[in-house]
Every structure is written in structure tokens, then in C-alpha cells.
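We give the chain.
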Amino acid sequence: MKITVFTSNHTRHISLINKLGSIADQLFIIQESRSIFPGLNKSRYYKSNILHNYFQNVNRAQDFFFKDKNIFTKKNIFLLPLALGDLSHLNLKDLTKFLKSDLYIVFGSSYIKDDLCDFLINNNAINIHMGISPYYRGTDCNFWALNDKNYHLVGATVHLLSKGLDNGDILYHALPKYFEDPFLFTMSSVVSAIESLIERIKDKSIFKFETIKQDKKLEINYTKIKEFNEKVVESFTKSNLKIRKIDYDIGLFYKPYFL
């Protein structure tokens, strides 16, 4: 099987790359580079001691679950490294070698649009959205679910790519393992998404899933990156949040996978 993945360079993304490389005959990686020290270096997030301290906790949780710091290069792996934003300047001809796969996966890339988006939609590309859609869409969704104290709506949505942000037809939801620590709790939802997807690619069930359309009337919050600011992060940090044990209402989810 040939697989193409559009992703980023954080440890969690590299873990997905390595797991895909272990099951694919050929793996094609389009990897955009983001700062691994958000808040300390200006990138997607502006420089801020408050944000830097927050993301140190995110990185602590990431390192707890994911150990892969480098791509395990094999003869079956082909890598196209890009700076963040470069992808929007490439056309389909530039990516010819990367667009002949059996499966396309998007996880942590920048917003994909125009002809590339059309191509991926036509080829049933799968997107991993870190948030439970349709309830939380946009950016930093699991943070906002925690901030709203909707702990039961922390997780991931594995859905078909669409032109609208995070609104493609849902294949299933992936839910985290319980941790009292909010950073471990949310990061375990990444583990749930990756493990479930690898499992379902290996047994080929991912190609047989029936999807369900998202009901936008259920949306609680559609968040933008500018809303994730010093004021709200400082308030969240000072709350010293501890996650309580959750009794899930299975009816809120589609084909849920529990880690």
C-alpha cells in the first residue's frame, strides 16, 4: 500500500510517520516545519512567557507518550520538507510523485486549498482533527473543551477532508484515556487517534467505514487562533484544573474508539 501524509514536525507527527512507515509499502511525507518552542519563538503563536509556559506543559505531555524524535528513514520513505506556508505555493505538478497513493492522510498541516484540496477530496483523504466535531471546530479545540469544562468532549475526530474547516463527513471519534492531569488527558487523545487509525489501516477496515454528516446545529464553539491569547491561557493556568472521572454519553459520538 502507498500512503501519503501531510503533516508537521512535532514529536506526535513524527510518531504517526514512523507508524505509517512500518505498515506502508511506500510512504510519502509532506512535512511542514513549525517551531517546537511555541511562545518562545514566534510562529503560529506570538512570543509570550505565558504561552511558552503553557506549551512547556504540552511538550511534557507529548514526551510522556511519544518517544520518536526523528523519522526512521527507510528505503520506502520519501520526504518533502517544507517551511510553514510553502504548501499553498505548490501546484499539483510539483507534487506528482506524492499524489499516486492509495491513501491520503492529513494531520497537523496548514490549511489545504485550491486544486490540491480538490484532488484530496476526490481521493477520500482522511483528516485527523484534534477536537470532537461538530461540537468543537477550528483551532485549539481540546483546550476550549477543557476551558468550558466539557471534559467529555475532549478527543479527536477522524473524518473525510472537506473544503470547510473540520466539517467533513465523520468516520469515527477517538477518545482519550483518563488522566487527572489535563495535559496528559488531552495528549492521550492524540494517541487514541493515531493508534486507532493505524489499527484500521492494517486491517483495511478504514476503507469500509460508513460515514455520517456533521450536524452543525450541535456546534458549541468555532474558535480562531487569535482567541487563544495570554489572558485566557493565564486564567486557565491559574485554575490548576484537575480532570474528574467522566461518565460518557455514547450517543454524543459516532463509532467511538476508546484508548
